[in-house]
Amino acid sequence: MMLERIERRALAAIRFLDAETQRPLTEPITVAGQGLRFARNARGLHVVTDAPGFAGYAASFEPPAPLPASAAFSLVASDPTRRYLARRFTLDLPRDATAPPPGQPLPPDSVFRPVDVTLYPSPLMRPSARSAVVRLRVVDAHDRPLPGALVSLALADPELSRWGLSNDRGDALILVPGIPIADWSNPEVSIHFTFTLAAAWAATAEPPDPDALAQDFHPLSSTLDVAAGEEVTTTIKLDWVEL
Question: What are the backbone angles phi and psi of residue 234, rounded to the nearest 5°?
Answer without folding.
Answer: -155, 170
